């Protein structure tokens, strides 16, 4: 007991007995030394003597601490807990209390524990918990190195401590107050240094026990993710640290990115839900502010939504920045293997999380951005979305979402090659034509609940046409050698769909239908206004209306918008179209108008056959 108490005092650099306990201080002359000899040989002898004294001092200190630790454990086994409790007190004491041990004393104690770690079984669990919960991150780097080594030895010798240690480390990856890096008589430790120390410890443990990445670390990381109500800095800090974990635990990359994306998209959809919950006028004002306008209202609900938008903005910016390391700055014909693997992961996230999520607003722009890094990526995205849109084994909602995605992507992807626009539109148009040929006999009129997949594809093609009509023309030379342009032949299938009994103009989004009708009439593709007027006279009825959701509508998050601007195709007014609007509206009122195309005649014939 006296020896252990002496060790406690001797190891403390401020203790009154420090000199006598540790031995002769390095550099202090010893009795019998010739302090007046200045020769080289004498200096060498002095240096060697100093080294020997330092080694002797260190060995003596280590011996004393090892003896104290072993005695405490032996006495504990014999039923005497006094020194064991003193050992515990070293780690559980408040660093600001008078009897708190120094970092040097703790470091020496840890070194002694490392040599007896096999004895720290379940009977010593309270001591181990005290060690795990001590204020270690704010101490000197030498202490941190010894502490991390002890943690590694503990998990290697006693697997049952793995959860406690990993959970403690992960809890240090959340946003911590600056006070976490401050201890009495210690230099402050920056928050960034705290996080690096935690990552160092986690990496050290994973190097020793690689299987802990999946069995212990991943569940711990999931459990500590900030609640959606927590601050922006809490989310930013944790997401940044999760991405840092991937650097030394690459086996967790897919799982962690999937989890992060899932959390981000939940915040994304919550914003839209909150906007919908506000009164119409107030919700519209807030949406206007998000895109750059200003409002005067300062209600709590509005403030909370704005905070959530800001949180989403920064988190997406972090994800864009992370993925950007795997992709080129501009589109390339031959992407690297790293780019291919990263895009494969993003597509997996698209299929598993983003596509099934109803009305997310911004998260999907990760795939929009990544798909434009190589033509083959754009092709993969279009093929994936079109395949789902045309798959009648899928639920109507899934098909409608897929059609909306392919339409919005082709319309908005700025560097999209014209041939991809043509190929994608041709596939959908031919499907529409075949569908009309095969299923018209079953149709008794427009019905979204029954023909939702068909209407989704119709709406997708109309939407694409509004943005990409230039890419849907081809050059031709007539018999006189005159070179001109004409619409690609597969667009006749769109005409067939529009004039069929399915009547897509009645159930597709009114905004899409109206815009398409104006542009198609302007370029003399098809005249739709007669059908539109007939539909208006008949009223909406019970056939329903198709959702007008287009996932790549303008991106308005202020910070992360920088990743999208260079690859985003903004809507451009068509020259001369506005001047014709009044004339077209007037002409649509008469059934025998001279400007009506052959398509209108086909509609009348088709309707007469239906009545028969």
UniProtKB/TrEMBL annotation:
Q: Where is the composition biased (Polar residues)?
A: 1-13
Query: Which domain of life does the protein's organism represent?
Result: Eukaryota
Please provide one cellular component term from the Gene Ontology annotations of this protein: nucleus
What does the UniProt keyword field contain? Answer: Initiation factor, Protein biosynthesis
Q: Which InterPro entries does this chain map to?
A: RNA_pol_I_trans_ini_fac_RRN3 (IPR007991)
Entry annotated with the keyword Protein biosynthesis: yes
Cytoplasm recorded as keyword: no
Q: Name one GO biological process term.
A: transcription initiation at RNA polymerase I promoter
Please list the GO terms describing molecular function. Answer: RNA polymerase I core binding; RNA polymerase I general transcription initiation factor activity; translation initiation factor activity
Please give the residue ranges the record annotates as the region Disordered: 1-49, 575-612
Q: Which family does it belong to?
A: Belongs to the RRN3 family.
Tell me the protein's name: RNA polymerase I-specific transcription initiation factor RRN3
Say which species the protein is native to: Tuber borchii (White truffle)
């Amino acid at each position: 007991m006296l020896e252990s108490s002496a060790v406690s005092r001797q190891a403390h650099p401020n203790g009154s007995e420090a000199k006598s306990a540790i031995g002769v201080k390095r550099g202090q002359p010893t009795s019998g030394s010739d302090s007046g000899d200045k020769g080289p040989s004498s200096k060498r002898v002095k240096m060697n003597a100093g080294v020997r004294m330092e080694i002797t001092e260190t060995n003596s200190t280590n011996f004393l601490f090892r003896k104290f630790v072993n005695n405490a454990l032996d006495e504990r086994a014999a039923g005497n807990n006094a020194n064991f409790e003193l050992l515990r007190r070293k780690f559980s004491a408040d660093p600001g209390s008078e009897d708190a041990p120094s970092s040097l004393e703790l470091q020496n104690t840890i070194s002694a524990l490392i040599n007896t770690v096999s004895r720290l079984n379940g009977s010593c669990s309270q001591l181990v918990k005290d060690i795990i919960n001590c204020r270690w991150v704010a101490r000197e780097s030498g202490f941190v190195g010894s502490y991390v080594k002890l943690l590694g030895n503990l998990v290697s010798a006693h697997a049952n401590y793995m959860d406690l240690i990993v959970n403690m480390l992960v809890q240090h990856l959340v946003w911590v107050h600056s006070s976490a890096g401050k201890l009495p008589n210690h230099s402050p430790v920056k928050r960034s240094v705290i996080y690096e120390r935690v990552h160092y410890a986690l990496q050290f443990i994973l190097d020793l026990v690689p299987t802990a990445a999946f069995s212990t670390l991943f569940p711990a990381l999931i459990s500590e993710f900030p609640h959606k109500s927590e601050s922006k800095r809490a989310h930013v800090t944790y997401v940044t640290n999760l991405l840092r974990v991937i650097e030394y635990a690459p086996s967790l990359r897919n799982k962690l990115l999937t989890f992060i994306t899932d959390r981000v998209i939940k915040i994304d959809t919550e914003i839209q839900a909150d906007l919908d919950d506000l009164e119409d006028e107030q919700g519209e004002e807030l949406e206007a502010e998000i895109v750059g306008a200003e409002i005067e209202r300062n209600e709590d609900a509005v403030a909370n939504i704005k905070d959530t938008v800001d949180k989403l903005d920064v988190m997406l910016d972090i994800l864009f920045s992370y993925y950007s390391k795997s992709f080129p700055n501009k589109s390339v014909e031959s992407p690297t293997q790293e780019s291919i693997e990263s895009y494969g992961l993003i597509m997996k996230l698209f299929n598993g999380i983003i596509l099934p999520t109803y009305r997310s607003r911004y998260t999907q722009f990760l795939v929009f951005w990544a798909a434009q890094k190589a033509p083959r990526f754009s092709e993969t995205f279009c093929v994936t979305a079109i395949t789902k849109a045309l798959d009648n084994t899928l639920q109507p909602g899934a098909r409608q979402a897929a059609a909306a995605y392919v339409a919005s992507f082709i319309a908005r992807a700025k560097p999209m090659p014209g041939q991809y626009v043509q190929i994608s539109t041709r596939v959908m148009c031919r499907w529409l034509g075949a569908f009309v040929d095969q299923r018209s006999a079953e149709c008794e009129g427009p019905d979204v609940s029954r023909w939702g997949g068909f209407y989704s594809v119709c709406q997708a093609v109309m939407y694409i046409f509004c943005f990409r009509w230039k890419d849907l023309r081809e050059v031709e030379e007539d018999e006189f050698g005159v070179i001109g342009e004409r619409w690609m032949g597969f667009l006749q299938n769109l005409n067939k769909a529009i004039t069929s009994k399915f009547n897509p103009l009645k159930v597709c989004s009114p905004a899409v239908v109206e815009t398409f009708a104006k542009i198609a009439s302007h370029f003399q593709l098809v005249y739709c206004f007669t059908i539109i007027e007939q539909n208006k006279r008949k009223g909406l009825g019970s056939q329903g209306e198709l959702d007008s959701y287009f996932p790549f509508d303008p991106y308005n998050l202020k910070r992360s918008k920088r990743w999208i601007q260079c690859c985003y195709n903004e809507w451009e007014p068509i020259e001369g179209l506005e001047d014709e609007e009044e004339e077209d509206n007037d002409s649509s009122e008469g059934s025998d108008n001279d400007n009506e195309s052959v398509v209108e005649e086909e509609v009348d014939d088709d309707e007469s056959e239906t009545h028969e």
